[in-house]
Structure formats: C-alpha cells, structure tokens
Sequence to fold (96 residues):
Amino acid sequence: MKGGEKRTIEPGAPILDWHFWEEGRAAAVHSGVHVRQGTYTLYESATARVIEELAEPADESTLPPWAKSQAQIQDEAVPMSAALTQERTGCGSFCV
Fold:
C-alpha cells in the first residue's frame, strides 16, 4: 500500500473467507474452526478496528450484505419464478 501503514487482522481462528467491502474501506472476514460454526467480522481497513461482528446464523440468507460471499450475492440477484425457471432450462410444457 503506497504511503500507508500495514495492519494485521488476527481473528483468533482460521480465516475461511474474506473480501473487501465498500470499495476497500472495509474487510469482511469469515473465520472459525468449522464452516457452519464461524464468526463474521467487518473491519475498517485503515485501522483494523472491528466495525461489526456476528455469529454465523442458521440461515445464511439472513446475513447482512457485507458478510455474504460474491456467489451468495449473485445467487440472490437471479429472479426466481416458475416461468423464468422454464425459460432458463428450455422446458416449456413438453418437459417431463
């Protein structure tokens, strides 16, 4: 980082996933020993200060946007309906 300071984030458990948020102003970290038993933490990039932290919920769809992976965000952006599913799969009334 040009002219900046290096900050180290140490969540206390292995980092399972991470990504920058808000154009790099924050870093979202998913850490834990097991995938479904982790913690989500949002850190301020400039200071490594914790902005928000939450335990992994039973239902990932309830995660705040900053804690979701790109795959989750993309999946949620796809509109779902019976007609659209038929269109995507190419099945009309002839599919069995």
Summary: Residues 71 and 77 are 10 Å apart (CA to CA). The chain has one domain: 15-89. The beta strands are 15-21, 26-31, 39-44, 50-55. The radius of gyration is 18 Å.
